[in-house]
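Sorry to interrupt, but I need a hand with the structure work. I would like you to pick a protein and set down its sequence and fold. Please put the record directly below this note.
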Amino acid sequence: MPLKNNLKRVCLSLLLLLISILPIFQTQAATTEEAAKPPLKLIKFETINKTSWGVKAILANADGSRFYTANLEGMTVYEYDRATKKILRKLAFIPTPGKGFNYDKNVWFDSYQEKPVEALLTHQGRFLWLSLHNAGGVVVWDLTGAETFVEGRPFKEAWLYETPDGSSKRKIRLLWIKTNTTPKVIAATPDEKYLFVSNWHSNSVSVINIDSPFPKDWNKIKELGPSPIPRGMVASADSKLLYLGQMGSDYISVIDMESFKRIRTINVGVNPRHLIRFDNYIYCSLNLGAKLVKIDTTTEKVLQKADTGRSPRTISITKDGKYIFVTCYNADQLQVFDADSLKLIGSWESKGRPVAAEVYQEGDLIEVWVGNHTAGTVNVFTFKAND
C-alpha cells in the first residue's frame, strides 16, 4: 500500500510540474515562430510594360508622387504617376550620330549620342539632370516645362510629349554641358553647390558649379583625374568630402572639396560600382565581387560585408533606413538586406537583367521599382512590414 501511495504522489508531482512549465514551452514556441516570420512580406507584384527599351536608371521626386525612367536604348525619359503607374509625360531626344561602346567586345561602334544613362534631381526637384552615354556631356530638363536653353551655349533638342498619347507635343532645347568621354553617374553635394559626373573612358570626374538657381550660371569648373574607372559617387552630409567608387580597383577615393584632391582611399573589395549614404553610413555594391559593403563614415572603416546575387548593380534604401534593396543583374534578382546587420531577408525574380531601382515608403508599405534593362520593363514590388 505505501508503494502505491508513493506512486500516486510521484504521478501527481509530475502532472503539476508539466502544468507549470507548459506556458514556458508555449512562449518559446511563439518566440520561435515570431523569429521565423520575415520582417517584410511581398503583397503585390506588377509589371509595367509601357516603358522604353533599355531602362537604365529610375528615380523618384522628393514626395514620391512621380517616378522617372532613363531609357538608354529608347533615347527617352518617361515620367510616371506613382499611384496609378501611368505615364504622364515623355521626353524623346532627337538623335544625332555618335559612337557607342560594346562592353562585351570592347569595341566602339556607330550609334547615337543621346542615350541617357543616369539621372539626378536638383534645386528642390525642379531640374532633372541626365548623362548622355555617347555625347560626352549632361543635359538638364526643367520639369516645370520651361526650356533650359541658354543663348550662345550648346544644347540638345528633344520632343516633349505632354500627354501620353502624343496628341500634345512640342520641341524643346535642353542645356548641354560638356563633361568627358562616356559620362555615367551624376551626384551633387547636399548644399547643391557642386554637381559631379563620373566619366568612364576618360577616367575623370567633371565638376560643375550649380550654386545658382539659373541654368545660365552653370558651368564646368574642373576635371578631376582619379583612376581607374570612376563610377558611383556620394558626398558627405556636410558637403566637404566626395566618396568616389573606383570601379577598376578595390577601393573608394576620398576627395576633399576645398582642394579637389584625393586625400585617402578606403579598401572595400573588387569592383565598387554604386554608392549611397544614409546618416553616418555608406553602402556600396561590388559588381564582380558580388557583395554589399557597409562603411562607417566617422572611422571610414568597413563594418560588414554580405554576399549578393551575381553582379549587384543599383542599391536603394528605405526612407526609414531599415532596408537595402539590391538589383542583381546577372542573377535576374531583386534582393533585400537588413541595413543594420546586412542579413539577407529575401530574393525575388526580376527577369530581363535588372539594373535600376528606386524605393518609395509610406508607413509599413514599401514599393520598389525595378528597371529591367534587356526586357524593357519595370517591375513594381510592394512589401508590407510585419508587425
